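note to self: the first set is below, dont mix up w the second
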Amino acid sequence: MGLIKKLEKSSDLVNGMADRLGIDMVDIIARDPEQEGPKLMRAIMRCSRCEDQGGCTRLQAEHDHLDAAPDYCRNKEDFDRVLKG
């Protein structure tokens, strides 16, 4: 898979996970784009190195809502931090 396709898929997975967790990424980035934009890019890069993107894709296809990111998620700590506020 090419780099652009891989990053596009990773972006979709990060945003999909955030949606299922009830995290409004647009609102977070809009509040502080200079700080939050790079955080989103780092999350996408971490996701792009995940060895189980297929599992994440299936999980998201099967669930509209999740209480927490799965343990294998490379962005779990960040998602948990946002959820705890």
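second set (the one i keep forgetting abt)
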Amino acid sequence: MAEKIGRYFVISDNIYTDGEGVRVQLVYATRTATLMYVIPEVADALRTGRLDAISPGTRAALRDSEVVVPDDQDELADVLDRSRSAALDRSLVNFILLPTSYCNMGCTYCGQEHVRGGLSADHRDRVRARVLRAVRLPTTRQARIDWFGSEPMMGYAVIRDLAKDFVRVADEEGVEYISEMTTNGSLLNQRNLEVLIKECRVRKFHITLDGPPDVHDEHRPLKSGGRSFWKIVRTVREALDNPDYRHATFVFRTNVDVRNQESIPRYIELMAHLGFNQPNVQFLLAPVHPWGNDVSAIELEGKDYAERELGWLRLMHEHGLPFMRMPTVPQRVTCSAVKATAELISGTGNIFSCTDHPLVPEAEQTSALGHIGQDDLPVFRPAGEFDGWYDEVEQGKSWCKGCVFLPTCGGSCPKAWHEGRLPCPSYKHNAQGRMDLAAARLGLRPVGAP
């Protein structure tokens, strides 16, 4: 079969050495999210399109990573068709649930409007019935339940009540059960962590820390006037010492803007000192972005953020904190907003496809696809604004069509593109530096570097 060198890969500018004469370059294949080491001659052949200059063994590895593809393949169409198929796949159902409409924090960059009051018994029963109906479908092989906010732990009793039935029915039906929680972490303690992990089967906790104690507590103030940094840190640190929780992952997300950017190095050094260089911990930095509100006064521009981020990632590397150098899994489905079997149920009862919509006043009024109180709701949510996203990419309605990172990014955020914003991930702008860090992880350094 005739073959060609494809379009979806990035080659490191640097040549690396281990100090013993080995000289290699990195090739990052974006269709499979694979990092490969090749000799410089192979890197040159890839750049110049000389497939015949690559040995059969190396060509086979490049074929496996989809750097080398069939000569007649339309790569863009193939990438988009895979994503369309994944978005329509009914074997995975995903529900993102807000067990409350209230949050105990008052973060200034948040666009949500929080209201006290729990869910009615009718609402809870309707959510339960809707999720279980989807889990029991003969086509369902995997059910993912994400507890989201406002602050989901304000609805802890709701989570316990619903999760016990979700877990039980998934087990009865032979359906794989996956659950994650996005939380500010301030209400976690050892008692409820044990329940969440063992009974509710939450396997990943996304917790936001926006800097060292003084900065975090100012950036993410509790509405009560109290502080949360040390409470969060002590709770998670104690959990990491519990061998029963080794299968649970804790992701520390830091939302970065002009007010806390200078404190990020101090935060990294502190977290390393506190012993968070653990295999079931991940660190994630993310620029603050609009969430139904105007953050233009504090938002960091994409390329400038990526340049600063690279320095922070180097510091994480030096201190042994776990973080993603380059994506390791291709993004088959961009986000829940494009997946036909994924939906978010707000604390108001409104059903959305996009996680940026719940509790945002304008979106609650204009972007709801249905309401949990409807008796005529279809099994899967009604069509949403972003269901045709992959057709939009193919039609060139965003820059994604010609981007080498499309397979690992998926377009990042269809909502942002619709609003005229550029949501490209930072690794698009700092991939070369990230590949240097990937090489350093294996003890390689750029040729000529000390």
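remember for set 2: The first helix runs from residue 40 to 48.
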